[in-house]
Design brief:
Blueprint lengths: L18 H11 L4 H23 L1 H12 L8 H47 L4 H6 L2 H43 L1 H48 L1 H6 L3 H53 L5 H43 L10 E7 L5 E4 L6 E7 L2 E6 L4 E8 L8 E8 L4 E6 L5 H8 L7 E6 L2 E2 L5 H6 L1 E4 L10 H6 L7 H10 L3 H5 L18 H15 L3 E5 L7 H15 L3 E5 L11 E6 L2 E6 L1 H7 L2 H7 L6
Parallel strand pairs: 7-12, 7-13, 10-11, 11-12
Antiparallel strand pairs: 1-2, 1-3, 3-4, 5-6, 5-8, 8-9, 13-14
């Protein structure tokens, strides 16, 4: 077993700290679609105005045709038919414009979400390991699912409806003023009361919608964790407890969703009933004004239509308010990820293909030469040092948390071609040492030298290209077996892949798979045994052909007979390479050039297998079984 790479912390959900800044940042993604947005705005304006203008036609229809025709015979409907056709044309234009802007907004919203997802994923590749230590998989996946879905709804629905509602409110309000300032005053009084209700109800729902998003992320994270760990759940008969834990989390989500949607769901009927009251009051006051001769029937008819049109966008604004709040809360979490501090890389030394000249000098080559050198800038020029695999730790102290050191004043060296074995109890710091070699983490004190170069001067990508790793917890991708091996060296030929598989003793079982090397692995290689998965991981490292190998319990899931075959292949793979081996099975480290016994972050013994047995210390106790690794 390897020690955990760092502390775990639960992510804190909170109300958006700066809603305005978040909203403006969302708008920045829309700049790319400026031309289409102008077309959307024009289409939305025409669509809304067609409805506003259409309602005004009720006045001439009533005053010129309906009322005068009452009680008359042989009426000429030619003028009436003309105005109806004109009205139909206006509404047809509105329908076409509505379809146009709706279709365009679908294109724009999907494009924005693509850019957001690409930005998130791209930035995640540059984040340090500490970020993944502090955030669970479920929390990160929630940004790609729940938060982006809320953002999609905001861009494709909420914002267009809000914009359309504002245009509608302005247009209708203008027309109402033209028709009757007295009735418009009544509308404003009712509007003020309705806005007061919206503020009270929607304001109370904001915190519950944020809580709902938090609980949804928790539930999704728990589901993902339990799906990945189903074998463990079943082996330990943990199903009843898992069900109970899920019920608790689901109940927390239910409570948060109930509170959030209670406010959201009661808002619509409240606003609807208030609009009905408003409509009735307008009709009563309008009737009084008509009786007194202040207004005519046509004006009252048009104004009542505008009253309904005026309250409808207000209701839509109230409906979209919670959706905007949810989207802003989710967008802030998305931007928190995008803005997370990337992995620092102050290195200026790169790894290049090299040609070794007969006089011992080194020149750089653009072609692959199978020889590598460090390219070091110096006084405006470059000097080259051959990549040999010399690794040295000098008084290294490190802790995942600064006040809790995992390694204490560690000093040792690995000469090129040496096999260094790290032995010790779980949590002693073995895996941490390998994590420091490839700079997943940086040391707090001391330094690490690679070919006598401080590793913090080497660009991280180049440093890691020079290293090959086989971890205890293997990870395979949803690709063919061939592509999973080629992951170690993307330009490897099929011949190289086959040679690496043979070296790792994986060729035999691969050829017996349904499609051989073209067999597609799914669910992290669930259709393979753990031993077969580790063989593929070893083959992946072999095809990379690195000068330094790190084997972290690389053969822990392989039987002794298979391990013996692998060691024969690994011996040729390790020939001339610096190798770090972490192992609990001490039989695998007997031929190591140097064995380091590590306890509590300190080297308590060092030497070859025979030397350590002679000392009769901790290694002797471990080897003879007098002391068990734990």
């Amino acid at each position: 077993m390897t020690e955990m790479p760092g502390p775990q912390h639960n992510m804190k959900y909170a109300r958006p700290k700066n809603a305005k800044k978040t909203f403006l940042r969302i708008l920045s993604y829309l700049k790319k679609y400026k031309g289409r947005l102008i077309l959307v705005a024009v289409a939305m304006l025409l669509s809304t105005l067609s409805s506003v203008i259409g309602n005004y036609f009720m006045k001439p229809i009533l005053n010129r045709y309906i009322v005068p025709f009452i009680g008359q015979q042989n009426v000429d409907f030619s003028g009436f038919a003309g105005i109806i056709l004109l009205l139909a044309g206006i509404y047809a234009l509105g329908i076409v414009c509505t379809f146009l802007y709706s279709r365009l907004m679908v294109t724009i919203s999907t494009g924005v979400l693509r850019e957001v997802r690409v930005d998130m994923f791209t930035h995640m590749q540059d984040l340090p390991m500490q970020y993944y230590d502090a955030h669970t998989h479920g929390e990160l996946m929630s940004r790609y699912s729940n938060d982006t879905d809320a953002l999609r709804q905001m861009v494709s629905q909420s914002l267009p409806q809000l914009f359309s509602s504002v245009i509608s409110v302005v247009g209708v309000f203008t027309m109402m003023l033209v028709l009757s300032w007295q009735l418009t005053l009544l509308v404003l009084l009712m509007l003020g009361f309705m806005m007061f209700v919206v503020k009270k109800v929607a304001g109370g729902s904001a915190r519950y919608f944020i809580s709902q998003q938090k609980e949804l992320g928790t539930v999704n994270g728990y589901i993902e964790e339990l799906i990945e760990g189903q074998k463990v759940v079943k082996v330990f008969c943990h199903e009843p407890q898992a069900k109970e834990d899920f019920r608790t989390r689901a109940d927390d989500l239910r409570v948060a969703a109930k509170n959030a949607n209670t406010y959201a769901n009661i808002l619509f009927p409240i606003m609807g009933n208030l609009s009905h009251v408003h409509y009735a009051l307008t009709a009563v006051v309008g009737a009084v004004l008509t009786i007194t001769g202040t207004l005519d029937i046509g004006t009252i008819g048009s104004f009542l239509l505008y009253t309904r049109s005026f309250s409808q966008p207000i209701t839509q604004i109230s409906q979209q308010f919670n959706a905007v709040l949810t989207a802003l809360a989710g967008a802030e979490r998305i931007f928190d990820l995008i803005d997370a501090a990337p992995e620092k890389d102050e290195g200026d030394i790169t790894l290049v293909n090299a040609v070794l000249q007969e006089d011992g000098s080194i020149t750089e080559s653009k072609e692959r030469t199978e020889h590598w050198a460090w390219k070091i800038p110096m006084d405006g020029e470059f000097t080259y040092i051959e990549l040999r695999g010399d690794v040295r730790f000098e008084h290294v102290t490190f802790g995942y948390e600064p006040d809790k050191p995992v390694l204490r004043d560690l000093t040792f060296y690995a000469k090129p071609g040496q096999k260094i074995a790290l032995v010790g109890s779980t949590g002693a710091g073995k895996t941490t040492i390998t994590n420091l070699v490839n700079r997943f983490y940086d040391v707090q004190d001391g330094r690490i030298l690679y070919d006598m170069i401080p590793v913090n001067r080497i660009k991280k990508a180049d440093l890691r290209r020079s290293l090959g790793m086989v971890l205890q917890d293997t990870h395979l991708f949803t690709e063919s077996v061939r592509e999973n091996i080629r992951y170690g060296k993307l330009d490897a030929s099929d011949t190289d892949v086959g040679a690496a598989a043979k070296l790792a003793n994986a060729d035999f079982f691969i050829r017996h798979l349904p499609q051989g090397y073209d067999t597609v692995l799914t669910a992290d290689g669930a259709n393979l045994s753990q031993g077969q998965r580790q063989l593929l991981a070893i083959a992946r490292a072999a095809v990379a052909d690195p000068p330094v190998l790190i084997l972290d319990e690389a053969t822990s899931s392989i039987d002794t007979r298979t391990e013996a075959h692998i060691e024969k292949g690994m011996d040729s793979l390790m020939q001339g390479r610096t190798v770090f081996v972490i192992a609990h099975r001490l039989s695998t480290v007997r031929n190591a050039d140097l064995i380091l016994v590590i306890e509590h972050g300190e080297i308590i013994e060092r030497g070859s297998h025979e030397e350590l047995l002679t000392q009769r210390g901790r290694y002797y106790q471990l080897y003879t079984g007098a002391f068990e690794l734990s």
